[in-house]
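Section 5.1 Outputs to date
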Amino acid sequence: EPSLKITQDEQTEVNLSTSALLPETYIPDVGLRLSLYKRIANAKNAKALRELQVELIDRFGLLPEPTNALFQSAELKLSLSKLGVKKLEANTSNIVMEFNPEPKIDTSKLIQLIQNNPTKYRLEQGTTLKVASPNESLQQRLQQIDSLIETLTS
C-alpha cells in the first residue's frame, strides 16, 4: 500500500504576496480547476510545468497574471525544495528564506553575504535568512530570489 506520508522535501512553502491562482473567469469549471491545481502541485520538474502551461494556453487562451504567478511559485517550490528551503516568503520589502537543518547551499557564501552587508542580510534563529529587498513588482521579487539562489549555490 503506497504511503501518503509527505517527505520533508515536498513541504516547501512559497508565498510571493500576490494572487497565484486559476481564476474562475479563466477556467469556469470548478472540478477542472481543482484537477489542474493538483496537476500543477504534483509536477515533478520545470519541464512538466511548462508542458502544463502550454496545455492551458491551448485550451483556454493566454495565462492571466495570477495563473502566471501560480506557475512561477510552483517552479520556485521545486528548485527550493532541492536546496533544503522549508519556506520562502517575499513581499514588497523583504525576502525571508527558512532553511531545513541541513540545507544544500554553500553556507560560507551565506556567511559572506551577511558579513559584507549586515543591513541587507540577517540570519535569524540560525535557520532563517531575512533579506531587505524593496521591490514593487512580482517580477522584481522573482529576480531577487533567483539571484539569491544563484549566489548561495554557485
